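Bumping with the actual sequence this time:
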Amino acid sequence: MWIETLDNGKFKYVERYIDPMTEKYKKISITMTSDSRVAWNKAQRELNNRIDKKIKTISQSDITFGEITTKWQHVYKNRVKPNTYLRSTLTLKIIKRYIPDDYIVRNINSVFIQETIESIYYTENYSFSSTKQCKTLLNSILEFAKKKTIIAVNPVLEVEIKKKPKTFEQIEKIGNKYLEPDELKTVLDCLRSFKSGRRNANLTEFLSLTGLRFGEAVALTYDNFKNDFIEVNGTLDYHTHKSSAGIKTTAKTGKANRNVDLSDRAKEIIIEVILENKLLKKEEHFQEKNYIFVTKYGNPIDIATYNTSLKIAAKKCGIEKNLTSHVLRHTHISILSEIGVPLKAIMDRVGHERPETTLGIYTHVTKKMQQGVMQKLNDYYN
């Protein structure tokens, strides 16, 4: 360290250090009013602290993937809904099979990320959707690292993944994502034959008539019913709370907040359920929570219990499809496609921001309709 006397009578204490980023010498200084031994020692301590701070900031580039992930999760958890965070932890488990916690972040480059994503999709045969979720999550983590100056460039930005051509099995699988009209009727009849199955049957039919997500349907309150339409303004949080708690949270996406017009049959179902609830209120065990689709105890219908009843009904009536509440949402999309509703109108009705799922079912159904036209033409001319 050395001292330079300034024109104003003060003293500038100057020290040199090697910048780890450039490996070149740099100067750092502090101005004092004295050139005494006390001032010298004070300036030396202050300059050393500043140099240490600069070097420490740069040396953060040695941080591991596990360390940066932990820091990222702390921030991300407070920015998203609980169920979104929960899904991210599941995706992160897939990623960490390829990027262990002890990997140094600055050594993770675009070639390595590209190979990782390709292995997940092409080798491990995860779905294109799951692979994209892995890429998106990695992008978020490494963009966080970039903003913390741990890395200079986010390597995920250079990574691409091409969708594999669909196999015949995958094309056929799309047809398993929704119920045909006769299959839906069979399931409804089967549910109504169960003891206490009427409420599940009503919810099933309502989901197929509106395209609501399960969480949106069971979060409907009496105030949301506007006679000719329903106001969808939230979803039941059954990921971090029990359904019986009846915790309503914000909608999944911006598009999910919407008004859904009701058909005559959909209105009949809601009115019927509301009347049944009024009768149940007289029972001591019924706890009013203001929700429409509830059990005999007043709790919102539980998704796990509901899906189990669907699977039992499907098995009993010989339908070989993995029947869940979401299949009914797809069923509604297929109905709208078949009656000629435009794709954009379907997306607005079901609250889809991205068209992938809607488009897959829409295309599948319209192709079937085209095949039906050709069959009718062949029958006519034969």
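The tokens above came from a reply further down the thread. The two ends are 102 Å apart (CA to CA).
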